[in-house]
Amino acid sequence: MILLTKNFIQRFLSKFLPVCALALIYSFTCFAQKPIKDLKPTVILVSLDGFRYDYLEKFQPGILNELAKKGVRAKWLIPSFPTKTFPNHYTIATGLYPENHGIIENNIFDFGAVFSLDKRAELQNPRWWLGEPIWVTTEKQGQRAAAYFFPGTEAAIQTIRPSFFREYNGRVPNNLRVDSILSRLDLPFEERPTFFTLYFSDPDDAGHEFSPDTEETRYAVLNVDDVVKRLVDGLKKRKVFGKVNLIIVSDHGMAAVNRNNSILVDDIFDTGKAEKILWTGEIVQIFPKQGEEATIIKALQSKIRHASCWRKSEIPARFHYQASGRIAPIICSADEGWILTNRKRFDEWKERDELDGLRGAHGYDNNLESMRAIFIGHGAAFKKGFISEPFENIHIYNLMCKILGLTPAKNDGDFEKIKTLLKN
Ligand code: AMP
Ligand code: ZN
Ligand code: ZN
Fold first, then answer.
1. Looking at ligand 1, which atom is closest to the CA of residue 149?
2. Which domains does the chain have, with CATH numbers?
3. Is 420 a catalytic residue?
4. Considering 5, 29, 83, 85, which one is annotated as catalytic?
5. Per-residue model confidence as pLDDT tens digits over 202-220
6. How many angstroms separate the CA atoms of 163 and 165, rounded?
């Protein structure tokens, strides 16, 4: 009996041991992540659209708070006016105020054409995108950039696009975006990009649909927290967490709105006197017909409530919103929680029983608490456990150039204002 068992074990070992050993080697080579030993200074810029500054406290996303605690955090990031997605992303990328980079709103009227987020051909047309975004600076100076979504990365600005980019599609799973960026880090030294972008819309989507202070928005925040954790885990596996500089930002915050707080602009002035009107709920751009500007502004300024309307030359200087030829002769900006709209749209909402209920909006005055954004920095270049005073998002471009060893293009930021974030 003992002999039988011994024989059996011997036979088993001689037959299966080589197979087991092979399987073990195979799984090591296939699944063990190769550490990256030759990393150049690297930045991964992660945008969490519509992540209001207080979500960190309020919803307690674990990894984001950990990065903020161990790295650098601004008390909040001051967005640029108007507090919309495209103007602010492109300000972060270029260090220019919207009046200087040309993306003055999500909708723009110029060249006799309209730029808007649903017009891919226009989004990809470089004529709209002025200034020099960080990925162009990176590529021009001999390094490589990889973008998994970021406004502007689809257009050949100054004829240059990131070495890797993808046309925007909001349905691409967030985890795929992260894994794809991590796989670019695995490229050999000469091919490996040093600047990366990632973009996630979840906090903005939930904030709009359900309003900011809700369970739904909390879940969206925790969702993107998981995605950031996947990125951090990927960096740890490659032994470069702590070396790679993670910059996590948002473009603006989110305010609660109720459609009953609508301002019916066409009840206030005769819209037939305008050549063109570009509407968003928070900003209306009015291009008057020849000779009608005075009549329109007079009607607006005397009658409008819960919004401010200015001639272009009267827009308060603190908004830095005058210099561009694209800014309309008249603009109206709604007060927090109010919606600029027209009678037709309001009646449609009413008809569909869509007036009641809280929703979310942004685009308002960039000094409002509800519009505040986030800035978290973590990695080799950043101090540890440092909380900075709030700063404007025009400064991030210079900061990224500094970390990457790039000479910045002309911009509105000032490195001196945020150099305290970095190690000496
Ligand atoms: P906003 O209207 O300012 O709330 O814009 C947010 C929306 O912008 C997101 O929900 C996306 O659908 C859209 N978006 C973000 N990035 C891009 C992009 N690169 N191209 C086209 N649309 C985008
Ligand atoms: Zn946004
Ligand atoms: Zn939004």
1. 19
2. 43-255+367-421 (3.40.720.10), 260-356 (3.30.1360.180)
3. no
4. 85
5. 999 999 999 999 999 999 9
6. 7
